[in-house]
Design a protein that fits this description.
Blueprint lengths: L2 H4 L5 H6 L5 H12 L6 H4 L1 H10 L7 E5 L8 H5 L5 E5 L9 E3 L1 E2 L3 E3 L5 E3 H12 L12 E5 L17 E7 L2 E9 L15 E5 L6 E6 L2 E2 L18 H15 L3 E9 L3 E8 L5 H6 L3 H11 L6 H10 L4
Antiparallel strand pairs: 1-7, 2-3, 2-7, 4-5, 5-6, 8-9, 8-13, 9-10, 10-11, 11-12, 13-14
């Protein structure tokens, strides 16, 4: 644990003074106040999110198709016959559960990024489990979303293990206020999920450069599998990343949200999904309190700016 956190850990009062936001404050002071529940389906349903993103000019991985009912599972091969790589995910999933990435296939054998070989029956069972709600919020019946696999930018080859890293932006009242990149590891099974053992690297909101790095809430300096120096990360196209998060405010109407963004080698930054209840691990990765960052927006940041103006304010401290 970082010194800044361990120093305050024993004292709830000191934690509050440091601006550390806990789950109760997040839920009752921030989410309940700024996120109307009627807006949740816009981000909880990945199909809705994709369609809405197109209207607001936000790039997302291309939708190949959807499977809503059990009798439709057999159409999978027809959907992906022209797609050498694709991803299957639950429309109402969370935390990376139920996401299956296929890097190559011949219609009979399907290969994951780690080299694991699956048969059609395995994909059939995975989609059936998805439809039954095995991976979904609240266990509700779900839809399987099939989309293109992101063409992973080689800039991050040394920083992630058998998986695509992403950037998580926390956006408050349309302003990106805190960020981290999540890097897959062997422990996380190639998924960029901190709870499963991925590395979280806090990023300076103005530059996209490394602040701190953690794995399982403990400080780390190098990637555990590749050995890459995590202090040297600098996310390219940083303004474009921030602009996706800023636009998500108008797109959803949510005053507090998490935007997950990946860097495609050909298309640049792409929005993977949005979250109306983003977790708080970003504080550990940054070594900073999120509540204090939100209060700065309330007190000092201008209102009624366009997304581009809000991003420029974050980067430069003034309107352009």
């Amino acid at each position: 644990m970082f010194k800044w956190l361990s120093k305050y850990f024993a004292s709830p009062k000191a934690l509050r003074e440091a601006g550390i936001m806990g789950m109760n404050n997040r839920n009752f002071k921030i989410i309940s106040k700024h996120n109307r529940r009627c807006l949740y389906p816009l981000v909880d349903d990945k199909v809705q999110t994709k369609k809405l993103a197109q209207q607001f000019g936000i790039t997302t991985p291309r939708l190949i198709g959807t499977i809503e009912y059990q009798h439709e599972v057999g159409k999978l091969l027809d959907l992906v016959k022209d797609w050498p790589a694709f991803v299957i995910k639950p429309s109402h999933g969370s935390g990376g559960k139920g996401v299956l990435v296929i890097a190559a296939h011949d219609g009979h054998v399907f290969v994951t990024p780690s080299g694991k070989q699956l048969l059609y029956k395995d994909l059939y069972q995975h989609i059936s489990n998805t439809l039954s709600g095995l991976y979904s919020l609240g266990g509700q019946y779900d839809t399987a979303v099939i989309e293109e696999m992101v063409n992973f930018s080689h800039i991050f080859d040394d920083y992630s293990y058998q998986g695509i890293p992403d950037v998580r932006l926390i956006v408050y009242k349309g302003y990106p206020v805190m960020a981290m990149t999540r890097l897959a590891t062997a422990a996380s099974g190639g998924r960029a999920n901190l709870h499963q053992g991925a590395v979280g690297v806090g990023l300076d909101i103005k530059t996209g450069k490394t602040l701190k790095a953690v794995m399982r809430n403990k400080p780390i300096s190098h990637h555990p599998d590749t050995g890459a120096d995590l202090s040297k990360i600098e996310v390219p196209f940083w303004r474009e990343h921030l602009l996706i998060g800023a636009k998500a405010f108008e797109m959803t109407g949510l005053g507090y949200l998490g935007a997950d963004i990946v860097l495609d080698a050909n298309k640049g930054p792409m929005m993977l999904e949005l979250n109306a209840r983003p977790g708080l691990a970003v504080q550990i990765a940054n070594g900073l309190g999120l509540y204090k960052a939100l209060k700065r927006v309330d007190k000092y940041y201008p209102k009624n700016l366009a997304p581009e103006e809000r991003v420029d304010f974050v980067l430069n401290g003034r309107k352009k």
